[in-house]
Amino acid sequence: MNFIIAKDYDAMGRAAATIVAAKVLTKPNAVLGLATGSTPISLYKELVALYKKGELDFSNIKSFNLDEYVGLPPTNDQSYIYFMKDNLFDHINIKKENYHVPNGNSSNLEDEAKHYEKMIKDAGGIDIQVLGIGPNGHIGFNEPDTKFEKVTHETGLTESTIEANKRFFNKKEDVPTKAITMGIKTIMMAKSIIILATGKGKADIVKSAFFGDIVPSVPASILQLHHNVTVIVDTEAGEKIKKHI
Ligand code: GLP
């Protein structure tokens, strides 16, 4: 694993954007795996800025998002499709038919999950997967103790994730309890991965995920076995790993 400790949140986003931009420049039809949450917003801001300066062209880029809540309409500002349009897709020249977010409103979530997995495969697989990390070590919505061999699937959210994500909703009861997510296996099949973390609230999980045991109770720990992972954290999130790298 490679580690980058950036000085703050914006620098973390810039470091991540450099890696994504290098891929977009060298492989104009690359397939990006994208994440939501508050963490990657500085990355998306930087990518939009590079696009606006004329330095990046997304016209042949494809993307697949990690996950989506079940049951939120796409017009709900907490749905992940809304988030992606608001923070990235509506500000760059990626084609509508080329970006994908799982459909959490499908009447058959099992079929939707299979179809999503097949679309990723048919696109040639993911070149760079962007990840955040939940305070309990979840990646996408792969909660602790999810089997490492799972591909895209429907899942329930743990109490800790509902608690962590309630800050985005009016009240806790509004947080969906289910989601559709790429599985750990889907994520591990990506050709390269960047995982981002910011703030002191993530310092413990960053240490246990990347310097602790590889165990299903810490889903992100499996990334230690991937051949091309870059962990990009800010000073606060990197506080407990700096002496190990
Ligand atoms: C959500 C998403 C994850 C994300 C995590 C962390 O649960 N499903 O993909 O990594 O939250 O969010 P944040 O970046 O806001 O801390």
Structure summary:
The chain has 245 residues and is an alpha/beta fold.
Main attributes?
seven-stranded parallel β-sheet; 30% helix; Rossmann fold; 7 helices; three-stranded antiparallel β-sheet; alpha/beta
Q: Write down how many β-strands occur, each being a DSSP E stretch of 2 or more residues.
A: 10
For the residues shown, what is the average pLDDT? 97
> What number of structural domains do the residues give?
1
What is CATH's topology name? Rossmann fold
N to C succession of SSEs: EHEHEEHEHEEHEHEHE
Strand content: 15-25%
- From the N-terminal CA to the C-terminal CA, the straight-line distance is 10 Å
- Number of helices, counting only DSSP H or I runs of 4 residues or more: 7
Cα-atom radius of gyration: 17 Å
Please give the order of strands in the largest beta sheet.
1-10-9-6-2-3-5
State the share of residues found in helices, binned by percent.
Answer: 25-40%
Low-confidence stretches: none
Q: What is the level 1 CATH name? A: Alpha Beta
Bound molecules: 2-amino-2-deoxy-6-O-phosphono-alpha-D-glucopyranose
Largest sheet: 7 strands, parallel
Known CATH architecture = 3-Layer(aba) Sandwich
General form: globular
Give me the secondary-structure category. Answer: alpha/beta
